[in-house]
Amino acid sequence: MAVREIRVYPDPCLKQVCDAAEPGTEETRQLVEDLIDTMYEAGHSVGVAAPQIGVCKRVAVVDVSHSKLGQKHNHGLLVLINPEILERSGSKTMREGCMSVPDYTGNVERAREIVVQFTDRSGQDQVIRSKGFEAVAIQHELDHLDGFLFLDRVDNKSEIFKRKQ
């Protein structure tokens, strides 16, 4: 449909708590298509959330299947409408980056495994268990829906690194 411009911090949209999306509407369908197009066009992205393209709705897409870190454990393209994490277990620290914070990366501790409930692009309610890199990517994107960036999750600010150009 359309590749959209990624909002970059300190854009105020990135710090807002998003409103629920209405599954099945043309507006939500278009938003999902734009998110998918934007994620794949970036080439290196494994997820994009609606506030990153300036839409304050609870919608995100994740696909780690093309990343070497996500090839073993993934559900392919996930369209997450009004997602909610029901369970978290374990702990994993990974270096994260974000298209909305293009100049930095940081070490972030997240749950190793999660159970997430959401509505998919066809309007069906889903519950999946995700682990490893996919679980980290989902948590990262869902943070965007609550106005958090990965920088907000870095415990020690010495764990933020200037991205190599």
Keywords:
single chain, 165 residues, alpha+beta, Peptide Deformylase, five-stranded antiparallel beta sheet, 8 strands
Characterise the protein shown here.
The protein is an alpha+beta fold and 165 residues long. It has a single domain (12-162), classed as Peptide deformylase (Peptide Deformylase). The protein is 21% helix and 32% strand. The strands form 2 sheets. Strands 1-2-3-6-7 form a 5-stranded antiparallel sheet. A 3-stranded antiparallel sheet has the order 4-5-8. A hairpin with a 2-residue loop joins strand 4 and strand 5 (101-110). The longest helix has 17 residues, at 26-42. The termini are far apart.
Mean pLDDT: 96
- Inertia-based shape: globular
Strand order of the largest sheet: 1-2-3-6-7
What are the secondary-structure elements, in order, as H or E?
Answer: HEEEEEEEHHE
End-to-end separation: 30 Å
Q: Find the count of extended strands (DSSP E, 2+ residues).
A: 8
CATH architecture: Alpha-Beta Complex
Supply Rg.
Answer: 15 Å
Overall structural domain count: 1
Please describe the biggest sheet, giving its number of strands, its sense, and whether it closes into a barrel: 5 strands, antiparallel
Number of helices: 3
Q: Determine the CATH superfamily.
A: Peptide deformylase
Note poorly predicted spans. Answer: none
CATH class: Alpha Beta
Q: Structural class, judged by helices and strands?
A: alpha+beta
What percentage of the residues does DSSP assign to strands (E)? 25-35%
How much helix is in the residues? 10-25%
The CATH topology annotation reads as Peptide Deformylase
